[in-house]
Write a structure and sequence with these properties.
Blueprint lengths: L1 H17 L16 E3 L6 E3 L6 E2 L4 E6 L2 E7 L2 E4 L3 E5 L3 E6 L1 E6 L2 E2 L4 E5 L2 E6 L2 E5 L2 E2 L4 E6 L2 E4 L4 E5 L6 E7 L4 E4 L4 E5 L6 E7 L1 E4 L4 E5 L7 E7 L3 E3 L4 E5 L6 E7 L5 E4 L4 E6 L9 E2 L2 E4 L4 E6 L5 E4 L4
Parallel strand pairs: 1-7, 5-8, 6-9, 7-11, 8-12, 9-13, 10-14, 11-15, 12-16, 13-17, 15-18, 16-19, 17-20, 18-21, 19-22, 20-23, 21-24, 22-25, 23-26, 24-27, 25-28, 26-29, 27-30, 28-31, 29-32
Antiparallel strand pairs: 1-2, 2-3, 4-5, 32-33
Length: 318
Amino acid sequence: MKKRLLSSLLVLCMVLTLMPAFSVPAEAASEDYVLLLNSTDGKFYKNSSSGDEVTPAGASVSGVAGAWVLTLTDFNFETTASSALTVPTGTTIKLAGDNTITSKYNGEAIPCGIYGAGTLSIDGTGTLHATGGTSTASDSNGIRANTSITISGSVTITATGGTAEKNSLGIYVHNSGDLTIKGSSTVTAQGGTAEVGSYGLYSGSLTTSDSASVTASGGSAATANSIGIRANNNITISDTAIVTAHSSESGGGGYSFYLHNDDSTLLINGSAAVTTTGGTAATSIYGIRTANLTISGSAVLTAAKRHGNRNQQCRHSC
């Protein structure tokens, strides 16, 4: 009996020795550098144009200087540096597959998932998740460009601002530039927790058209506003676009739409459908701050105060 048991154990050990080893794949480690697309040669470098050249998997570049086309296909980049991906002015990012760009920075700088030095265009058929890191002294951005951002095609984009000492912004166009969302694109923009203000979308002007779908939400803001969509100038929503804007609780008030200039206009026309959920700020239409509101065609605006049961639906005027 003992011999038979010993023989069985030896056979089992031999089988286990011959079997292949299986292990759970480890998560990809975060890098520690900004991935920079060089404006002159269209190559990728770490941190600066004079840094180390790298070849990131899932990224290819075509075109010419001033009009580079960066194609991302199942691209996944995560870094502890401030901006995860920095591209020069005139760049078009073409999305294919599922792409994730994340800054896990924690420090005093301004972290961005994607930073465009000037004009930035995003199109294609793929998806993109862009997330900003934590700023202990300034802002955090999911996607930021200095001059303008145009989103088109049939892309699906989720942009999320991180925790910020000042402002957290899902998508931000600096210097009062233009933000255009068109085609059949779907955009979700979320501001994170901020000491000052939290914004889903923030730009000089905003144009949403065709069959684009936009959801923009402000996060928690301690001392200023939580705003779904802020524009310093005008907002135009047309064709069959669908826009939903939310605000969260904040120490300074909340708005679904906030148009800053005294002569700015929120124009909703065509067959567009707009839904707003205001915060704590009481305005003529709950959650909307604008000098002029125009609704035309068969467009519909449904406005609801977050704290209360009243909904107000508007066609043509309110």
